[in-house]
């Protein structure tokens, strides 16, 4: 399942050349991940309050393919690649129409209050697990 979030490029997202500043793509894909989880019915604040668990980016591999510009309408696509007991690996793209502008593989680690790796609760793993074929 791929989740898609639509967003608009604002003036504040651009640099002096009028293109999206490179670090803002990381903000865009963060929003995409948050909305993907929300769409699945997952409440990150509740996980922290109830279980003391959070997700943190452990690894990110990014490719900047083409520039986005002020007022572009973009889509952030998020797709689950791998799910383990304490880790989620996602593929994310930012595109304008059918044109890919940015691509990333993101590894998220589940951490406890002390910042140590922790297993995700079984109910959360069941929510994130892809449907059996």
UniProtKB/TrEMBL annotation:
The keyword Hydrolase applies. CDD domains: 4HBT. Residues 18-102 form the Thioesterase domain. Keywords: Hydrolase. It comes from the Bacteria. GO terms for molecular function: fatty acyl-CoA hydrolase activity. Pfam families: 4HBT. PANTHER family: 4-HYDROXYBENZOYL-COA THIOESTERASE FAMILY MEMBER (PTHR31793), ACYL-COA THIOESTER HYDROLASE YBGC (PTHR31793:SF37). Belongs to the 4-hydroxybenzoyl-CoA thioesterase family. This is Tol-pal system-associated acyl-CoA thioesterase. It comes from Fertoeibacter niger.
